[in-house]
Amino acid sequence: LSPVSLRPDVRASRSQHGPFQNKLAKLVEKLSPEREVVDLEHETGRVLFNSMDSFFAYGLLSGDKVYWRFVREFLPKTQQQLLRAEWGDIDSRRLSIAWLKDAFNRGTLHFQMLSFKNNRKMIERFYHRNACMSNGGMLEAVTDMIMINTLSQSRARPGCNCGAAHYSYCNSTSKEKEKNGSFQAFLLLGYK
Fold first, then answer.
1. What secondary structure does DSSP assign to 63-128, as a single string?
2. pLDDT digit string (tens) for 60-100?
3. Which of 9, 13, 90, 131 has the greatest number of beta carbons closer than 10 A?
4. How many Cβ atoms are within 10 Å of 1's Cβ, its own excluded?
5. Burial of 180 (0-12, 13-18, 19+ CB in 10 A)
C-alpha cells in the first residue's frame, strides 16, 4: 500500500507550451472579427472551449483533469453554491466544465485568470512545475488572449455593457429573468 501523500505521476512537458499557445492565439484571432455571439455550436468556439479546458487540466498534480479544486479557492462561497445549484449533483470534473462555461458566458474568465496569475503559491499547490498554468509567460499571454476574446464578444452584443456574454439576458425584463432563473439565461454554451 502506498502512503496517502504520494501523488500520481504527472506527465507534463514544457515542450507542449509553445504549440498550445500558438493554437489558442490562432483560435482567438479567428474569433475576433465575429459579429455574432459565439457558442458551442460554432466550430471555432467549441475548439476554443475545449482548448481552454485542456489548458486548465494540463499538469494538475491530481492527474484527474479536475481543476475545480483549484478554481474554487478563488470563488466566493455564494458563487460556488450557485454553480452547484444550477448544475445539480454532479462530480468535480463536470463542475470544472460548468465553471469554465459560466466564466465564458459571464465574460469573467479574464478577471479570474488575472487572479490566478497573481497567486503563484496556489498554482504551485495544484499544478506540476511543467504545467501550462505554472508557466508565467504563457499564463499571461493566454489571459491577454481571453481578454481580446471577451472584448470581441462584447462587440457582438450591442446595448450590453455589463460584461455578461449573453445579450438576451441583458435585455430581458426582470419577470423573464425571474421566470428563467438568473443562471438559466447564461447557459449559452449549454452543457446539460
1. SSS--HHHHTTTS-HHHHHHHHHHH-S--HHHHHHHHHHHHHHHT-HHHHHHHHHT-HHHHHHHB-
2. 998 889 999 999 999 999 999 999 999 988 899 999 999 99
3. 131
4. 3
5. middle
Three-state SS for 192? coil
Phi, psi torsion values for 71, nearest 5 degrees? -60, -40
Structural domains of the chain, ranges and CATH numbers in brackets = 14-189 (1.20.58.900)
The average pLDDT across 20-44 equals 81
Do residues 145 and 26 touch, judged by C-beta distance below 8 A?
no
Q: Which residues, 6 or more positions from 147, have their beta carbon under 8 angstroms from its beta carbon?
A: 110
Give the C-alpha separation, 167 to 107, whole Å. Answer: 12
**Spatial distance between the Cα atoms of 60 and 180, rounded to a whole number of angstroms:** 36
Torsion of CA 120, 121, 123, 128, to 10 degrees: 110
C-alpha span between 71 and 42 (Å, rounded):
26
Joined grid coordinates for residue 4: 496517502
